[in-house]
Design a protein that fits this description.
Chain lengths: 217, 89
């Protein structure tokens, strides 16, 4: 179940544009369906647990807001929607870098894989820098966890997510270092897919967090 | 083949970028209400599916794993909708 049966990005293309991929080999064509998700199954159990925790937090936010709509709407206006949107683009782009890294290692290009991963980590650094700026703006304005329920949720949700970004950057840094040492290959790259899956989860959660906290009113 | 495959990923990234700008623009325009809220959740759902299927690679993982992500977005999005509607009363 944990073995990777090849496929990946090229096969994705076969599925999307079957008429443009006449060179697909029978072996590749048969390996399009796999039993499990990319990477180690253990990371997926962790990912689902994290998503569950965030899901509960999102719903507690939403139902708390239902009783204090005016307060939440007024407080939301003080957030920098631009910073939130830029950070969304930064995370999406970093996820794209990780996709390219996985694509590179599936073709045995270890150095290219490491370069794309480095790009993703740098963008992760940009995300955390923007977030720290946001936090400092709020703290210098005298806003804290105790200011009101909206800011308590805003600070808790975004800080919890922030910690996951740091965790993802750490995982990607280890994967990058191993890729630079030639520790992965076209046949053995489960570690790259495992790190990639975690990083995409961080992106996935922000995709809900941004409209929920910064935009919906 | 490699180039075309990466081009497909790039197209997905571009769509995600456009959808993010759409969400941002709705916020900047100060739009609000039930329809706007549903539109924002629909955009988030589409983005989530794009990331899960094409970035995470769950399109090759079978319906069990895809179903988990779809279900997650539907349940969380559905409950956010219920909470929003309660807040309108």
């Amino acid at each position: 179940m944990f073995s990777r049966k090849g496929g990946g990005a090229p096969l994705l293309f076969y599925r999307e544009f079957p008429n443009m991929t006449a060179s697909a080999t029978p072996e590749e064509t048969c390996s399009q369906e796999t039993d499990g998700p990319p990477g180690d199954l253990a990371i997926w159990i962790f990912i689902l647990a994290e998503m569950l925790v965030f899901g509960v937090m999102f719903l507690v936010y939403a139902f708390t807001r239902a009783n204090q709509v005016e307060l939440f709407n007024a407080s939301q206006l003080t957030l920098s929607r631009t910073a939130g949107a830029v950070n969304t683009l930064v995370l999406i782009t970093s996820s794209y870098c990780v996709v390219r890294a996985v694509s590179a290692i599936k073709q045995g290009m270890s150095h290219l894989c490491a370069n794309w991963l480095s790009g993703a980590i740098l963008l992760g650094g940009l995300f955390t820098s923007i977030k720290l700026w946001e936090f400092s703006e709020k703290f210098s304005a005298g806003i804290s966890l105790e200011s009101n329920d909206f800011f308590m949720f805003y600070l808790m949700l975004t800080f919890f997510h922030f910690m996951h970004v740091l965790m993802g950057m750490t995982i990607l840094a280890f994967v990058t270092a191993k890729a630079r040492r030639g520790g992965y290959s076209a046949q053995n790259h489960v570690g790259v897919e495992t790190g990639a899956s975690f990083w995409h989860m961080v992106d996935l959660l922000w995709i809900i967090l941004f409209p929920l906290v910064y935009v919906i009113r | 083949m490699h180039f075309q495959s990466n081009r497909f990923s790039t197209h997905v990234w571009l769509i995600l970028t456009v959808l993010t700008i759409a969400t941002f623009s709705i916020g900047e325009a100060g739009l609000a209400g039930k329809g706007i809220m549903l539109s924002l959740l629909a955009i988030a759902f589409i983005k989530g599916q794009l990331v899960a299927n094409y970035f995470m690679g769950l399109r090759q993982a079978g319906w069990f794993w895809r179903g988990i992500i779809i279900g997650y977005f539907l349940v969380v999005g559905g409950m956010i909708t219920v909470a929003y509607l309660i807040g309108l009363k």
